[in-house]
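At this stage, I put together one protein's amino acid sequence and its backbone structure tokens, which the following lines show:
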Amino acid sequence: MGTKVVCPGSFDPVTKGHERYIRLAARLFDEVEVLVMKNCNKKDVFTSEQRFELARLAFEDVKNIKVVLFEGFLAGYCRDNSVDAIVKGVRNAADFDYEMNLSEINRSVSGVESIFLPSDPEVGFVSSTFVRELIRYGRDCSPYVPENSLLYLKKINKKI
């Protein structure tokens, strides 16, 4: 059995930044689970099912990536599903500081370690918030979302 990692996030919506680090994780590790989660500190724009479908479409061509819709405690999921590590993408120092705090919590609760992958400079500025703003104002978001997700995104949001 190989190394199993999770890439958790709200993915509201999934972006090319997410896509880059998750595809990198799929090259580095045997099994990757993309956990589409509910963040209680955020008000999601897309439903859980829509966010799941956007992520599923983004990675449907990668055999060792599985997309899972999950609402609950990440450390508990990791413990209950024999996860070896949590993989997160970081764009800047603020992301790193935030994720570092969460990694310490996850380690203390479940013993699972976190691995941080730096963003690709081409998409380091892309965030779900940025993409949602483009959508809100009817701007083209196609350079910033995975190609496989774009048609579905257009289907569920007529402003695009």
